[in-house]
Each structure stands twice: as C-alpha cells, then as structure tokens.
Amino acid sequence: MSACLRFTRRVWKSFIDNKGHDAQCFPNLTITRAIPGLVETKLSIEPYNLNRVGTVHGGLIMSLTDTLGSLAVASKGHYMTGVSTDVSTSFVRPAGRAGDVLSATAKVTALGKSLAYTRVDFTNAKGELVAYGTHTKYVGRSSSDPNNVKFSEDGEKVIEGTDVE
C-alpha cells in the first residue's frame, strides 16, 4: 500500500474516531485509492442515507463534498485539513437507493499557502455523473502541523515527516 493511501486512511480514521458528523453519516465510507491530490472512495448506501422519496439525500452528498474535499487535502500530506470557507454541490440525477454504491473522486485543483480548492465528482454504479461539488478550505494554520508529511511525486513514499503504519 502506498504511503499516501496509508496516510489518507489514517486521517479518515481520525475523523471517525472523533465520533462526530462523519461517523454518524457515513461510517462505512471506504478509501479505495489515494495519490497526492486525488482520493477515490466508495460508499454503500444505507437506509439512513435516504430522503423521504427513497433516494440518496442531497445533504449526504453535500456532507461528502465537504469531507472528501478535506481528504483530498490530506492526500497532499496535511494531517489537519483546515476549515471550510465555501462548499457547493450541484445535483445531476438521483444518486441511488439503499444497497447501491456511490463512488466519488475528490481532487485538489489548487493548493496555496492559505487556501485549498477541491472538486468532487460523484458517480453511480453505471459510472454516470450524479452530482459534483467544490470545496474551498482555509489551510493557513494547518499547513505547519507537526503530523504533516511530504510524499514522493507518486505518493509511494514519505520523503519528509513520519510514515506511520
């Protein structure tokens, strides 16, 4: 497993261990791939993820846009992923029902000294785009966290900081 995937999963585990919003809304989120600046995930849709008409609740996708944008920042070596300044999501078609799998790809589109910009694309089992979102984060204070790391370009190795197994 690459250092980037290990690190990003460790950051995700810290979200879940906090027992906050993420642990309540999508504890079964799986990170399937992480390279610097890109994270791919899968989420098995549960009945508690649905709206009253039986499809994925838009609020779930909004929350995932926020969380997955944060994990995209983590994939760049940031243990603390900053705070949200803007989150936006557009809905293209229903995202599924209980038992379906929702896939998402989160990318860092720009990362500066104080702001990070991300985009998240959500697809259904057929590979159809069901929603997309953008997420802006203030990372100015988190960029100096002692748990941060720097990856090799391909994300296979940590070249600065501690690689925790």
Shape descriptor: globular
How far apart are the first and last residues' alpha carbons, in Å?
10 Å
Outline the biggest β-sheet: 6 strands, antiparallel
Structure class? alpha+beta
CATH fold assignment: Thiol Ester Dehydrase, Chain A
CATH superfamily: Hotdog Thioesterase
Measured by DSSP, the beta-strand proportion falls in 25-35%
Please state how the strands of the largest beta sheet are arranged side by side.
Answer: 1-2-4-5-6-3
Radius of gyration: 15 Å
Mean pLDDT: 96
Give the second-level CATH assignment, the architecture. Answer: Roll
Number of helices: 3
Total number of strands:
8
Number of domains: 1
Could you name the CATH class? Alpha Beta
Pfam family, one: 4HBT
InterPro entries: ACOT13, HotDog_dom_sf, PAAI_dom, Thioestr_dom
GO molecular function: fatty acyl-CoA hydrolase activity
Keywords: Hydrolase
Structural description of this entry:
- This protein is an alpha+beta fold.
- It has one domain (3-159): Hotdog Thioesterase (Thiol Ester Dehydrase, Chain A), CATH 3.10.129.
- It is 22% helix and 35% strand.
- The chain contains three helices and eight strands.
- The protein has helices at residues 3-17, 21-25, 58-74; strands at residues 30-35, 38-44, 83-91, 101-111, 115-123, 129-138, 150-151, 158-160.
- It has a six-stranded antiparallel beta sheet.
- Strand 1 (30-35) and strand 2 form a beta hairpin.
- It is globular, with a radius of gyration of 15 Å.
- The relative contact order is 0.21.
- Pfam families: 4HBT.
- Residues 54-131 form the Thioesterase domain.
- One of its GO terms (molecular function) is fatty acyl-CoA hydrolase activity.
